[in-house]
Please model this.
Amino acid sequence: MTDDQLRHDVPVADRVPGPAQDTAPAQDTAPAQDTAAERNSAARVALRRLADGEDERSALGDLALANVLLPDIGNDVTDLSDSQGDVLQLPVAQRQDGTQFVPTFTSEQRMAAALPEVDRYRTVQIATLGRIWPSDGLLLAVDPGSEAGIALPAEGLRTLAAMSG
Model:
């Protein structure tokens, strides 16, 4: 899977930003009919608080404890075990510059907008992903292609995992 498959018709400037990529403000690809529950998911609220410059430590702590949707794409996956012995399959996408990332989403609607062909997912806490993250070169993308999206490096994920206790 490439990041082109995640973006579909999202303009180049709206792609998942990475450490070496400067972008113009991204367009929110979520459907206009997001429900109040989806707008207020813990992950989305924490991301909004970070974007608004609110208490960063508190917002990061909330983000660490938030759940995201991990798409099940059925190919090109990395198997990882979490502390309960469950196997997590990480879908890995790649940007044109070769940077690899795992796409995750804060709602079913955001996932459907980016990956309309994917109808299965697992709900995973971000801190859990940080505890079992397989590679320093792999990013976690939360809501890739959306205005509120964020790309977290392995070190940032591990920091979030440590904040969750």
